[in-house]
Design brief:
Layout (H helix, E strand, L loop, with lengths): L1 E2 L5 E3 L2 E3 L5 E6 L5 E6 L2 H17 L10 H12 L5 H19 L9 H11 L5 H20 L27 H11 L5 H10 L3 H5 L6 E2 L4 E4 L2 E5 L4 E5 L8 E4 L2 H13 L12 E5 L6 E5 L6
Antiparallel strand pairs: 1-2, 3-4, 4-5, 6-7, 7-10, 8-9, 11-12
Length: 302
């Protein structure tokens, strides 16, 4: 991290010289250090950012030629690589389906609010409000990052209007009678334990799939939620991850029905058939210890 003459951090590759000018430096694809001096800090930051972008993404050397598509790839790789797989997938889907077809080939310095508004307008009537909002967030975050790195002078999303949201239907909570009817039908299927556990615990699908026996405390009648699992169809593999938010890390008291279902599953455990895939070992970041933990899929409850 470089500093200015007063000791303030200026960011990687940027520093202020004694004569007041700013130095920008980066290591290029050729392995050599590239350095240039500027009167303005914004010019030095742009030089460093685009120099790294040129190295990592093989874009044109001319700073003014950077396209939205090239910046998006760099932004995802550099700033969003630590996001959960689901969030990264949401960003990729929204960009490739809704943003790229309209502005992907445009130079990012030429993007104006009307172009961003066009992206949103094209989605209105085709998608649910939540999906449009995801695109709004993706585009806004990507362009904000470009502005903060002095690639563009201002945020083009300022002034962009979201379409008028349609009135949301009130959330309907199942009555006791409806829960009993649901359970009666669920028990006629082979997956009734999973259906009933979701009803009794409020576990999300990924949390239920990722629930392992070490997280089931029969003595204190508690279920610990510290991970989730999902199947990635494109890669054809199972993946585990920590909950998306801190509020997702929690302990759930067992109802009598949940306790009975889990006990029944546990007692049948030695007799169930196990496919070879259950020998697979997955890893995830433990949210409590911030360490990588591993488990075998055969240790999953369901």
């Amino acid at each position: 991290m470089g500093k200015d003459l007063k000791g303030k951090e200026l960011g990687p590759g940027v520093m202020q010289r004694k004569d007041g000018r700013y130095s920008g430096r980066y290591t290029g694809a050729d392995g050599k250090r590239h350095e240039k001096y500027f009167d303005k800090i914004s010019e030095a930051k742009k030089f460093v950012t685009l120099g790294k972008l040129n190295r990592d993404e093989s874009v044109d050397d001319r700073m003014d030629s950077l396209t939205v598509d090239e910046w998006y790839r760099y932004w995802m790789k550099t700033f969003k690589s630590s996001l959960s797989p689901n969030t990264q997938r949401n960003y990729r889907d929204r960009y490739s389906r809704d943003i790229k077809p309209i502005i992907g080939d445009k130079k990012i310095r030429d993007i104006k609010p009307m172009h961003c508004q066009q992206v949103i307008n094209e989605m209105d009537g085709k998608y649910a409000a939540g999906t449009i909002y995801q695109t709004y967030i993706c585009l806004g975050s990507m362009l904000k990052s470009a502005m903060m790195n002095d690639i563009i002078p201002k945020q083009p999303m300022n002034g962009v209007m979201m379409p008028k949201l349609r009135k949301r239907k009130d959330i309907h909570f199942l009555t006791v009678e409806e829960q009993q009817r649901f359970e009666a039908v669920a028990r006629q299927t082979r997956n009734w334990p999973q259906f009933c556990l979701v009803l009794q615990t409020g576990l999300r699908t990924g949390e239920l799939i990722g629930l392992t026996w070490d997280c089931v405390d029969f003595e204190n009648r508690l279920i610990t939620v510290n991970k989730q699992m999902e199947y990635r169809y494109k890669e054809r593999e199972w993946r585990a991850s920590s909950p998306k938010t801190l509020s997702g890390i929690r302990k759930i008291p067992m109802t009598d029905d949940a306790y009975g279902i889990l006990k029944e599953i546990y007692e049948r455990k030695p007799f169930r058939k196990e496919a070879p895939v259950l020998e697979q070992e997955l890893e995830y970041l433990d949210p409590n210890t911030q360490r990588i933990k591993k488990f075998k899929m055969k240790d999953c409850v369901c």
